[in-house]
Amino acid sequence: MSRPASRISSPAAHFDSCRGIRSRSGPQGAQHDDLPTSGRRRCSREGLEGIASANFVFALRHFCGANFSESAPWNESAPWNKVLAALLRSVAHARVRLKGAACRRASGMLGPFTLRCHRQGTGMAGSRGGELHARFTMVSMRENTQRPDGRIAPGDVARLRNATRALRLHIDELPIDYRLGALPQRFLTGLAFASARQRFDCVESLIGAGFGGTAMGAMSRGLLVDALKWWWIASDAPREAGLLAELLRERDGICETLGSTGSTCGALNRWLQPLPNIAGLTGQAQGWARLEPLPSDNDLLAEYLEGRLNPVVSARPQSQQLMERMHELLSSAELYGTTMILAHSGHGNYLGLLSSVAEAGGVGFDLRFDHEALFMQAAAIGVVGTLVGSSVPDGVWWPQEVPKAAFINTALDLAHNVSTAATAVHKLVGRPNSRATGGRKRSTASRRNGPFAPDPRATPKTSALLPDVASVEPVWDAVQEYAELVGRFKVDPWAPNQTFHAVLSYGAAISNFQSLLTVNNQPGASIILPFVARLMLEEAARTRWRYATQDVPTFEKQATQFFDEYRARRKKTIDQLITSGVSRAAAERFFALPEYVDQSRVPSTASRGRVPLPPVAQMLGMLGQSFPEPGWLKVAYSALSQVTHMTPLGLLHSVRFRNGALRFGTLSPEMTALSLDVACIASAEILGTFGLVLSDLSEGAFEWRRDLVRGSAKVHNLSRLVHGLD
Known about the structure:
Blueprint: E1 6-8, H1 54-64, H2 77-90, E2 97-98, H3 100-107, E3 124-128, E4 131-135, H4 138-141, H5 155-171, E5 176-178, H6 184-205, H7 213-234, H8 242-261, H9 268-272, H10 297-306, H11 320-331, H12 335-346, H13 350-353, H14 369-391, H15 404-426, H16 473-486, H17 500-519, H18 528-547, H19 552-579, H20 584-591, E6 597-598, H21 616-623, H22 632-644, H23 648-653, E7 655-658, E8 661-664, H24 669-694, H25 699-723
Antiparallel strand pairs: 1-5, 2-6, 3-4, 7-8
Helix pairs in contact: 5-6, 5-14, 5-15, 6-7, 6-14, 7-10, 7-12, 7-14, 7-18, 8-22, 11-14, 11-15, 12-19, 14-15, 16-24, 16-25, 17-18, 17-24, 18-21, 18-22, 18-24, 19-20, 22-24, 24-25
C-alpha cells in the first residue's frame, strides 16, 4: 500500500473551556471577577413583572429600526404601568417566578448577571514525524470532582466523568491517515471520525465549565445522529456513495435558499467548495444527481429501531463482531426519548434552556447533572459509533500500525462504561421488552421522488474556485469589543418578582455567548461556534416574534401560544419515555425544576386546541426585516446547519487546507465569520429585550440595548466581508 499523503492526530487536545474561566463566588469560596462595568443602574421592579405594552413595542421598533427617533415616547409611565399590570394579570398563567427563601439560597451561587471573566488558555502543539500533535493539558490533569462551576459532583457523577475522560484519552491517541487523491466518498469517510472526535472532546471540555450546557446538548445530538448514519452506511457498502448525493443536495439547497429569499452571496463558491480541487469534490461530470441520498435524521432512527431485532449485517465480514457490539451499545440507550431531549437543546428552545437550571447553580449557566449524564452518554455512543461505522469501508483512513479490532474493542468497552455510569445518574432506563419499535413517522416529502435537477451553481467549476485567503482576526477584534459592551450592564435576577422565563433567557444568552468567547485562540475549539450561533439565532427569532407586536390581545395570545408549545413538547417527550419502559417517576423527575422556581400559577397541560409556534423560517424573516436583504438570515441558518448536522458539506467546512496539508481543529473563515456575526446579532436581540424586562424598562437598559445593536452592526459589517451574505 502506498504511503499516505499525510496524517493527523487528535486536534482536540485543543480546547479546555474549563480552564478558560474564573468561577463565580459560591459556597466553595471561588472568586468571580466581572468585566468592568460603567453607567449601569439598579432599579426596583415595584411589582412590575414583565413587558408587553403597545407603547413599549412602538418605542422598541423605533429603537431597533433604521429610523430611530430620540423623541420615542419613553416617558408615558403612568398609563404604561396600568396597561402592563392589566396585561400581565391576564397572561400570568404563562409565567413562573422565583421563590423568596430558595431564591436567597440560590443567589449565593450567582450574583447579578454579567459575563464571567475569562483568560486565554494555552494548548500544547508540537510535531512528531510530520504529524500535527496536540494535547489538552489542564483538562487531563484536573480532578473531575473540582470544576470551575464550583459545584461538588456527587459520587455517581464523578464516576461518569472518569469514564468519559478515559474514553476521550483513548480515542485521542489514534492518528488518522488521509489521501488527497482518494475517491471523493472515501475522502469524506476519512473526515468523519476526525470531526466526531473533535466534537466529543469539546463536549467533554465543557463539563463543569459553568456555561455552554445547551451547546453540549446540541453537539451530543449531532454525534448520536452520526452514529446512526454510519451504522446505516456500514451495513451496505454501496450506501457510501450517498455521501456524494448528499453533498450535491446540500449545495443545491443553499443555492435554492438564496434564490427564494432574494439574497446574494459574493462568496458563494467558497460556501459550496471551501477546499481546493482535491479528491474530485467539485463533482463535475460525475453523475451525483442520479445517486441515492442519505436518509433524513428521523428516517435513520426509524430504520434502525425497526430493524434492531434483525441479525446485524456488516458490509465487510471482518467487521461483523464490531458491528454487533456497536448494535448492543446503541440499544443500551432510549433512542426515541433521548433524541427528542437532545433536539430541544439543538434548537435552543425553552425546554433546551431548562437543562441549565440546576438546584445549586446559576439559572441558564450550570448544567444539571442528569442532563450532563444523558448528553455524555449520547456523545460517547456517537463518537464510537462513528469510529466503528467509518472504519468498515476498505482502505480509507485507518493507520496500518494500529490494530483495528483491539483499538475499537477497547473504545467500545469504554463507551459501555460511560453508558452504564450515565444511566445510573439520569435513570432513564426502560425495560427491553417494553421499548417501542415504531412510532416515529418517516419523512413524508422524500427528496428521492422524481428526477433531481440541481441548480447549475451547485456543481462549482474548478476554474471558479476561490482561494482560502480571508482573515477573521478583524471580526474577532470586533467581537471582543462587543463583549465589553455586554459586560457593561447588569441585572439582578434575584430581585423580587422577577419573571423566571426572562431570567432564564437572559442568563442562557450570556452563558452561550461566553462559550463562544472562550473559543478564541483555543486550538480545535472553533467547531463549537456554529452550534452556539444557530441555537441563539432560533431563540432570537422567537424573542422577536413574541415581543414585536403592538396589539395587547395579540401579545396575550402569543404568550399562551409560546408556553403551550413547550408544555405539549414536554408531555410528548415524557409519554415517549414511558412508552419505552421508563418509569413515570423517572421521566417526570428528569424534567422537574428546582424548588426555587414557583410554578403554582402555571398550568400543567397545554390549552385545548393550541396553536403551534410559527415555523422557524417565518420568525427568521421577521428578525431580518431591518437588514438590506431581509432573507439573508434564512441562508445563514441553512449554512450553519451544515455543521450542526455535520453534512458532507459541513465536513468540508470543518477543516482547512493550508500549505498543501489538511488542518483539523479550525473552521473555514466563512463559517467562522458567519457564526460570530449571527451570535452577536442574536445576543443583542435576546439580551437587549430581556435586559429591559429585568430592569423595569430603565433608561440604562434602553441605552445598553442601543449599544448592543451598534456593536453587533460593527461585527456584521466586518463579517460580511468574509462570508459574503447580506
